[in-house]
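Q: I'm a student working through a structural biology exercise. My instructor gave each of us a protein and asked us to get a predicted structure, then write a short paragraph describing it. Mine is Sigma-54 factor interaction domain-containing protein. I'm not confident about reading structure output yet, so if you can add a plain explanation after the tokens, that would really help. Here is the sequence I was given:
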Amino acid sequence: MTFTGATSERKGIFETAGDSTVFLDEIGDTNHQIQLKFSRAMEWWDGESG
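A: Happy to help. First, here is the predicted structure for Sigma-54 factor interaction domain-containing protein. I'll explain a few features afterward.
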């Protein structure tokens, strides 16, 4: 995964997990913006891996 302005390559949490499980404990206790970012990332990743 890359983005404009990236200066180095680093795997994120979803890419590192690969086909494993990412456990997000008490995600409901985080603020709405963080929940939305995780939701978008999971939707994007599901589309890329499928």
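A: Here are two points you could use in your paragraph. The helical segments are 13-17, 32-49. The longest helix spans residues 32-49. It's a good idea to check both against the output above yourself.
Q: Great, thank you!
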